Amino acid sequence: MAQIHIAEDARQVSEDLAKWLGSYIEEVLSKKDRFTFVLSGGSTPKLLYTLLAAKPYSESISWEKIHFFWGDERAVPFEDSRNNAKMAYDELLDKVGAKAENIHVMQTDVSAEESAAAYEKILKQYFDGEETTFDFVLLGMGDDGHTLSLFPGTSVIHEKDAWATSFFLPAQDMYRITLTAPVVNHAACVAFLAVGSGKAETLKHVLEGEFQPDTYPSQVIKPSKGELHWFIDEAAASALTA
Ligand SMILES: O=C(O)[C@H](O)[C@@H](O)[C@H](O)[C@H](O)COP(=O)(O)O
């Protein structure tokens, strides 16, 4: 069952998530020596990353023990403003003590197919045979209900085997590289961060409507063993009935 955290506005949601995440990371690192963290792209996480890169989190989190991954990537050069890895470096990774060898970007200087295959190999090296995959997966949700690069009507929504894949997205005239539901649904903890009235109607369907993953791909995120959290603001929550 998803745990839903509602705050007044986008800043408060990000502050609440930063605080919650700081405690969660500390708890996990009290039991083991690495924390695997999937970063999200899009615009919503920027404020969260900025908060994490500043005090107290810049000093309280053991950044050197965190291994970073991405949920998806647009197959554009790193320097392109649409590149998810660049946003995370600019807002967070260039500001905290993460180790370069622990940061695993989805390469965009090779074909999307090669990038996905290389990512699959890295993920298998980290998690093959493990009880769960990532310690934490941060996800966004588009106004259309997509998450990662699982867009409505795409076959990748139903991928059952690959942990990372790629495909051409005609609507954006670009290739995308993305994690798939299987590897995310085996994570220890998944948290959506979604804000704004533009997501309200979609969020109502995702959380309260029938299971229609081709229309609302975010519905396929259902951790089998792990926790599922939604960090949302009042505007995004405005159509919820529960
Ligand atoms: O590459 C991407 O676009 C993201 O990974 C994507 O899944 C994002 O999380 C949603 O599109 C929400 O984006 P916003 O946060 O900008 O609404």
UniProtKB/TrEMBL annotation:
Keyword vocabulary terms for this entry: Hydrolase
TM helices/strands, residue ranges: none
Family stated for the protein in its record: Belongs to the glucosamine/galactosamine-6-phosphate isomerase family. 6-phosphogluconolactonase subfamily.
Name assigned to this protein: 6-phosphogluconolactonase
Keyword Hydrolase belongs to the record: yes
Pathway: Carbohydrate degradation; pentose phosphate pathway; D-ribulose 5-phosphate from D-glucose 6-phosphate (oxidative stage): step 2/3
The enzyme's E.C. designation: 3.1.1.31
Top EC category: hydrolase
Domain Glucosamine/galactosamine-6-phosphate isomerase: 9-230
Function according to Swiss-Prot or TrEMBL: Hydrolysis of 6-phosphogluconolactone to 6-phosphogluconate.
Source organism, top-level taxon: Bacteria
GO molecular function, one term: 6-phosphogluconolactonase activity
Keyword match Acyltransferase: no
Catalytic activity annotation: 6-phospho-D-glucono-1,5-lactone + H2O = 6-phospho-D-gluconate + H(+)
GO BP field: carbohydrate metabolic process; pentose-phosphate shunt
